[in-house]
Amino acid sequence: MKKTATLHSLLLLLAAFIWGMAFVSQTKGMDYMGPLTFNGVRCLIGALTLSLFLFCRKQVRGKSHIPAPSIDLKVTIKAGVLCGLALTIASTLQQIGLAYTTVGKAGFITTLYIIFVPIAGIFFRKKVAGIVWIGALLAAVGMYLLCMTEGLQLSTGDLLVFGCAVAFTAHIMIVDHFSPWTDGVMVSAIQFTIAGSICTLGALILEHPTWAQLQGGLGALLYAGVLSCGVAYTLQIVGQKGVNPTVAALIMSLESVIATVSGWVAYRIGMLSTDQTLTGRQIAGCVVVFAAVVLVQLPVDLFCKKGSLQK
What we know:
Blueprint: H1 2-29, H2 35-64, H3 73-97, H4 103-110, H5 113-123, H6 130-147, H7 156-178, H8 184-206, H9 211-216, H10 218-239, H11 245-252, H12 254-268, H13 280-297
Helix pairs in contact: 1-10, 1-12, 2-8, 2-10, 3-7, 3-8, 4-6, 4-7, 5-7, 5-11, 6-13, 8-10
């Protein structure tokens, strides 16, 4: 059981790494197109990638006479639609909010989902050990050190990104609720089809994208679509099958740390023109967030005689 939880935690860590690295691709992509266009196309690429995978998997199972795992198709579709709606809201609010607030504020406010998840879990009777709450608060402090570079003043953009954090919380809780009875890849394919269709429709109405824009940002779209959407979100859905949702949120919050480091590397090698150098305060934030993630992965009996992280 412990080995399974560790494996699922590693899957979530890999998802966080891919999302963090996507920072550079998303920054470059937005040089060519609007937020709805970028979100719509990358989600549809993700849906296409996963659909091809599902087709190949079916062919392999058929030739090998391997029976497909039993899943509830109706629940899988429902999960995919709900995840798709939550993802559409979260990604759209974040992208639009970035136009009205700073990256530092947006990064900190978005990662408030690490606090919102355990709070939301209470309403669904999810038992969370005290050490996980401590880890969540510690991670929030780390995110503040990492992302905040100016005074906290709420603007329209801040409120939009705050809504994004709430939507991501809903997404994590939906995945946690449905994952035991669903096929993670199918759920992910459905959610990206929903999110991609909605965002693309919005882009056609509001942004009027052109083929030249898509060609210019093709590299960024492929990374964000195939890896960030197709692979990472599927890793999240599969990984959450064996991990407490609060712990999952903490692991995935490492995305911000990885994004900061990858941004600095991209700047140093000339991929980004703006200075991404890490300050002493940001490095301290990376250390604090990493410590929080390690803390919640330690056996609970190290801190108390009774209690457990129950899903």
